[in-house]
Write a structure and sequence with these properties.
α4 crosses α5 and α4 packs across α8 (198-224). This protein has 8 helices and 4 strands; from the N terminus they run αααβββααααβα. 45% of the residues lie in helices and 11% in strands. It has helices at 6-15, 21-26, 28-51, 122-134, 136-143, 146-152, 165-171, 198-224, and strands spanning 85-89, 101-106, 111-117, 182-188.
């Protein structure tokens, strides 16, 4: 099934030099027809598909999809609209930072599919560090496996300069213990968005990401005990 037509990409190409409310209002029907509604259908189907792997993923699309309007209150860039659409799928929706989720981002420049933990709570962050320290071999077997590296490369995320004494020794052997977020994903060309197998493609990346996501879920459960 093809979710997006070339008009999806063209809308953002046209928006780039016309990023203001008057133009957007004049082209709102284009936005709804070729961007907003197809993206909602895609996210709905993605929730259903990934829910087969994770029964806890029972959210409405509106709880996953980010608004196209930018928050310009504290930004030097005062353009009102984002140049992409995006959604974050986790059991608690897009604001759930304490459950490993999937982030999808579609723009005329690229498609991003990312996984992991983004800015988790202090309690979960510390528990993930302890779990990595205690199960370093398992963690490295997953994150350094040829399949993982070929699909996602390295795990990304901001780091702390200092970690707790209990994990400091292991952190010398596994620098990812210093991370505050653990993110991994893939950047694909924009033509990917127009593919008929977009849902299958996204699910396949989810399957590759799943072993490490389960590792983080275990850390979350341990943090709650």
């Amino acid at each position: 099934m093809r979710y997006f037509q070339p008009e999806f990409l063209q809308f953002f190409i046209d928006l780039a030099p016309n990023n203001h409310k008057d133009w957007f209002d004049q082209n709102r029907n284009r936005y709804k027809k070729f961007v907003k509604e197809p993206f909602k259908v895609f996210v709905t189907d993605l929730i259903d598909r990934l829910g087969k792997h994770n029964p806890q993923l029972k959210i409405e699309p509106k709880h996953a999809i980010f608004r196209i309007n930018r928050d310009i209150r504290f930004s030097k860039d005062k353009t009102p609209y984002k140049m992409h659409v995006a959604a974050a799928l986790a059991p608690g929706g897009k604001k759930d930072h304490d459950y490993p989720g999937i982030y999808v981002h579609l723009s005329p420049e690229k498609m991003l599919i990312y996984f992991g933990l983004f800015n988790p709570s202090r309690e979960l962050r510390d528990q993930v560090r302890v779990k990595i320290a205690n199960e370093r071999k398992r963690f490295q077997d997953i994150s350094q496996s040829p399949t993982f590296v070929e699909a996602f490369g390295e795990i990304e995320g901001d780091k702390n300069k200092i970690v707790a004494k209990e994990v400091k020794k292991q952190a010398q052997k596994e620098p990812l213990i210093y991370n505050k977020s653990w993110l991994y994903g893939v950047e694909l060309p924009p033509e990917t968005i127009l593919r008929d197998d977009l849902l299958d493609l996204t699910e396949n990346y989810f399957k590759l990401a799943e072993p490490l996501m389960k590792f983080f879920v275990e850390a979350k459960i341990q943090a709650m005990d």
